[in-house]
Design a protein that fits this description.
The complex is a heterodimer of chains A (283) and B (285). Chain A has 283 residues and is an alpha/beta fold. Chain A contains 13 helices and four strands. The mean pLDDT of chain A is 96. The longest helix of chain B is centred in the first third of the chain and has 17 residues. Chain B is globular, with a radius of gyration of 19 Å. The chains are: A alpha/beta (283), B alpha/beta (285). Chain A: Its EC number is 6.3.1.5.
């Protein structure tokens, strides 16, 4: 049994029906892109598992010739990431574009040599976002998102950066479920097996930075969000109290990343408050 | 009797385009000699309308609504739309049209307003659950959430229903087994109602997505013995057509005369007692 199966056997409530989940995501990804008049999609491909899964789903939805993968390395990005992204490109047969973001990032931070890794990481994520949206206009292709449910809930991402997209097929999948589905769809083993990393600086790993393992936080999130148990109740179930407190606080503190900007109400029909329409208005 | 279920994907808020789609499905059904075609809930408007609810609302006599009613020639048509009443209230309404006339209107009585649903914000509550006569026996229409309230199917069954028409928009959730959770639950509801009331049960369910919520489809027909007569696939538009044998209703009821043995007096008496107690006890139960 591989390690992904092992994790799922410990948390069977996280296990998805791979075939049906794929059918749902592929059907609806295609519909949500095509019904607003687009035939192509563009995806930022980091070499990690999340963007790989989005890529493989998009290829199933549209075929390889309607998917554009964009690699946007910085000079400190790991070469493994670039290679893994290339393997995914070759295996799916999609068109790929590589844009080195080093010149613009370094030009900016030459003015702020003391800038923290956080600032640099956020800047890179937003630089990549602007490139994807520029290519979106060039190729008439909508940006497909690559943020999973775990990082959205934890706020482990950059607002208006990697969190930005037109349609996100994996945003309701926990990281553990991303792994299950990626494995099912044949994402290359090297991508499945390597430790997840935002790759914003060398030797960064998600689990090192977050301070806990994805499988553990996914189990906790399932109990808190899906089952609707209180922090007190999950502690009684044996979850470490400081872990629970930390995660609960993160979810609350990062709510701002999950909503549109606050608009100060003046009129009687304020966008987002009492001017309410779906994006799918009229389609 | 030949019945058809139009498992369509409506355009959100586009009555004009949806009218065309209805016409296409009705045309196809007529070509297949279908006697009655059933469209899903809010088939003329789409589901999660939010503020579009005001724009798509139509009075019963509206030209677009009447143009659809006029298509009910040689075929009976069941469809859903946002009805505007004369006192400017909006309803999630199902219509049964026959011989180019509306013969029955049903306004949704139970409006889901929780989780991803917000119907109570826009719609008024219907106040009637009634069966009505058709060329093929008594029918009763229920709209989605209503079926989850057993009182509605109970009332219709006591009111003589032989064919249940369920007009449904069911968003998929929970994909941990081959059958989606909502698919499993709906199957339980349709099979249970068909079986305990000895009635044909038609489940007309839309497909397509609205802002990432995917509607199930899987329209189906359950015979009065609880067996699946036929079913449509998930997610794809389809006209599901099948011949149903109305004599099966008689046979099912001879075999299990549950409606005969129902005790309305007991039900009403106990309900009145419970109602009285709830009024007296300030805190509910």
């Amino acid at each position: 049994m591989n390690w992904i199966e092992e994790q799922l056997s410990k948390a069977p409530f996280l296990r998805l029906d791979s075939e049906q989940t794929t059918r749902l995501l592929v059907t609806t990804l295609r519909e949500e892109i095509e019904k607003v008049g687009f035939q192509r999609v563009v995806i930022g491909l980091s070499g990690g598992i999340d963007s790989a899964l989005s890529l493989y789903l998009a290829v199933r939805a549209f075929g390889a010739d309607r998917v554009i993968a964009v690699r946007m390395p910085y000079r400190t990005s790991s070469t493994n990431s670039l290679t893994d992204a290339q393997i995914a490109v070759e295996e799916t047969g999609v068109e790929s574009i590589t844009i080195d973001i080093t010149p613009q990032i370094d030009a900016y931070f030459n003015r702020f040599p003391e800038a923290s890794p956080l600032r640099r990481g956020n800047k890179m994520a937003r630089e990549r976002m602007t490139i994807l949206y520029d290519l979106s206009a060039e190729h008439r292709a909508l940006v497909v998102g690559t943020s999973n449910r775990t990082e959205i809930l934890l706020g482990y991402g950059t607002q208006f950066g990697d969190a930005a997209s037109a349609v996100n097929p994996i945003g309701d999948l926990y990281k553990t479920q991303v792994r299950q589905l990626a494995s099912y769809l044949g994402v290359p083993q090297s991508i499945l097996d390597k430790p997840p990393s935002a790759d914003l600086w060398s030797d960064q790993t998600d689990e090192g930075e977050l301070g806990f393992r994805y499988i553990d936080v996914d189990i906790l999130l399932y109990h808190l969000i899906d089952l609707g148990l209180s922090a007190q109740q999950v502690k009684q179930k044996g979850f470490d109290p400081s872990f629970v407190n930390h995660v609960v606080a993160r979810i609350r503190q990062n709510q701002f990343k999950r909503v549109m900007p606050i608009i100060l109400k003046v009129g009687s029909r304020t966008v987002g408050t009492d001017f309410r329409y779906l994006r799918d208005w009229g389609v | 009797m030949k019945v058809g279920i139009a498992q369509i994907r409506p355009f959100l808020g586009r009555v004009d385009q949806n009218l065309d789609k209805h016409a296409q499905f009705i045309e196809q059904a007529k070509a297949e000699q279908v006697d009655m075609i059933v469209f899903p809930e809010l088939s003329l408007t789409g589901y999660n309308l939010l503020d579009l609810t005001f724009d798509v609302a139509r009075v019963k006599t509206d030209e677009q609504i009447q143009s659809l009613v006029e298509m009910a020639a040689g075929i009976d048509i069941v469809f859903g739309y946002v009805e505007k009443s004369s006192d400017h209230l909006l309803y999630n309404t199902a219509v049964y049209a026959s011989d180019q006339k509306i013969v029955h209107t049903h306004r949704k009585t139970h409006l889901p307003t929780y989780g991803m649903f917000d119907e109570g914000r826009y719609f008024g509550r219907g106040q009637r659950v009634r069966s009505f006569p058709t060329k093929w026996g008594r029918m009763g229409m229920l709209i989605c959430e209503e079926v989850w309230h057993p009182a509605t199917t109970y009332l219709l069954a006591q009111d003589g229903v032989e064919i249940f028409l369920f007009l449904v928009n069911s968003p998929v959730r929970d994909i941990r087994t081959e059958q989606f959770a909502n698919q499993r639950e709906w199957r339980l509801l349709t099979q249970t109602n068909a079986t305990v009331y000895g009635a044909y049960t038609l489940f007309a369910s839309r497909v397509g997505s609205e802002d990432g919520a995917t509607f199930l489809g899987n329209s189906h027909i359950i015979a009065p013995d609880g067996e699946m007569a036929c079913e449509a696939d998930i997610f794809e538009e389809q006209l599901l057509v099948t011949e149903i044998d109305l004599d099966q209703i008689r046979r099912a009821r001879f075999q299990m005369p549950l409606i005969r043995d129902e005790n309305l007096e007991l039900t009403i008496r106990e309900l009145k007692r419970i109602q009285k107690r709830r009024i007296e006890e300030v805190d509910g139960l």
